[in-house]
Prior knowledge:
Belongs to the UPF0145 family. The protein has 2 helices and 4 strands; from the N terminus they run E-E-H-H-E-E.
Amino acid sequence: MIVTTTPTIEGKPIQDYLGVITGEVIVGANVFRDIFAGIRDIVGGRSGSYERILGEAREQAIAELQAECASRGGNAVVGIDLDYEVIGANGSMLMVSASGTAVKI
Length: 105
């Protein structure tokens, strides 16, 4: 299934628009990861554990988009927008939201 942030797919005319679809994933921050990320913030460097979790959450949100698209009879998602939000008490959770338009090409 083609998924893209662009509104069209070059060389693939859209035959039918099937509606706006979304996928959301909320992940909790692990206390030990927070401690090690805090140390990284002090001494510098990247937080590999946070980057890994963020990547997994993004992949899951896009997978939800693809599943919703397929359930509507589509075979591509165009105009994908990804949003990241810190939520919960003291920013203890991260939400990744993906939205786009399910289409048939």
